[in-house]
Fold this protein.
Amino acid sequence: MNRENGAPRTATKNPLWGNIFRRKSNTAEDVLSTLRQVPLFSNMNDSELREFEKLIHQRHFKAGETIFWEGEPGVGMYIIQHGAVAICKHSRNDVRETLVRLHDGEFFGELALLDESPRSASAIAEENSRIIGLFRPDLFGLLERKPRLGNKFLFQLALIIGERLKQTNTEIQNLRAQLERSEVVL
Amino acid sequence: MMAKTAGKTPRAARFQPLHAPPSGAPPLLAGLPAADTKIVLVLDRKLLRRAARTMLLLAVLAGLVWLLPRITPVLTMLTTALLLTTALDPLVTFLENRDLPRTTAVVFVLLLALLVGLILIRLLVPVISQEVQSLAAAMDAKAFEQIITRLKGELAGKIPLLRLQAIDEKMTAQLQSLVAGFLQNAFAFMLGLLSAAPNAVLVAFMVFFLLKDGRPLKKALIASVPNRYFEMALLITHKMTEQLSRYLQGQLLVAAAVAGLSVLALYLLQVPYYFFIGVLAGLANVIPYFGPIVGAVPAILMALLHTGSLNLVLAIVIAFATIQLIENIFISPYITARSVELHPLAILVVILIGGSLLGMWGMLLAVPVASLMKVTAELLIWGVRNYRLSD
């Protein structure tokens, strides 16, 4: 799950200077502007983003609706266009523990783009949300049809996963240091 | 006073009297509502929704039963187009991979298929008409009698104990009609393949649009799936397409290899009409277990009719057995065409059903369609087991 630095960028709409000949609908433009905010697509130009726009699925979730359940086979990642999503884990007593709350422009479930292993947590819409889904079968199809673009995306995905790994390592080191200090105190 | 009992009240308690029966009611009527008692039927929404859904499903089923026999030709064309699309899609993807736009790649592949088709027709039509004429000549009673006599002589030479008087005239006539019927059916099928040209144009259009817009179409269809089943539907559709595509491509490659080997073997053995019989054997190979036998029979009959030589029959049997061996040991394992396994009994039943519904086409389409149904069922069961379908 990613939290971007700073507020998400919003598409500027100027009725006077906006391109009135643009053939793209508002929804398609919305999708493009959402994709531009996501670090996974940060190294891509507009024509490449349009290729991804053809692959993505737009879904609407009502508040309280489950996007996916923990333990289900993963199919792909989601990007929040508008709304809020809670990533939760359920304990044995069926008590829900929210791990993180995600908002516009943030994404989750990207590890499922690599394999079908079970989801490690559930994702539940906290309010009425418009969400973009990018799924493994479509990504694999893109890799076969346009390997250069697919590789560009996979490289970016590897960078993000690597970044997470570094952060996790730092956190483990901090925790170990805390533990060692507490043992000294004890 | 209307009690709201949705989803909580047991069914027996859903009939509730508005007023309790008067306390002084005669014992005979005890338990029954009094004459002036109003009965309020409390139907919960779930029950109503379920009933409506069942009725809708029944109506759709009835509609399908009424509609299906009327649109069988369209369905056959659509199934053929879908199967062809699945088989051709990797070629289009390959060209797209080489930086060709999708539409251009589709047009290129279809033009290539058209070219191959035209060359085949150009080569085959004169040969077919010639072979049908010579077949008619071979079916001439006198010629047939000569063949039988020659065959009798050979059999008597090989098996001295055989009572050749048993092969009387009646039997000869029966054998002649049987052989003629079989060969004519085989040739009618081959001619039928060529005469299906008008339908082929429609199928080609369907294949064009399915190849070009298949992905957006699939995306639009999946978009209508409710959120709860969305991921499952997406994964199942993908796995289904992948498995079926692998199966079909494998089958086509194996059929082509068997056809090529059969044509070569029959040519070397100098069996007449070697090309058609070889192609027929390749096509029949699509039908597991029975296909190889069906493919060998015309060659044996042809050898018997033309030469009456049992040595040639033996050579043909050995050739077909060797081809099957090569297919099973060297071709199929590398192509992994047998990924969808069906029980022989199931294959027999679906071939019979296909044959009774659509004739020879039905027999050819039966196994791929049954495989598709089997894969779908298996994946649906997998989906139900792995996904949480209710909140």
Observations:
- Chain A touches chain B through 23 residues (CB under 8 Å).
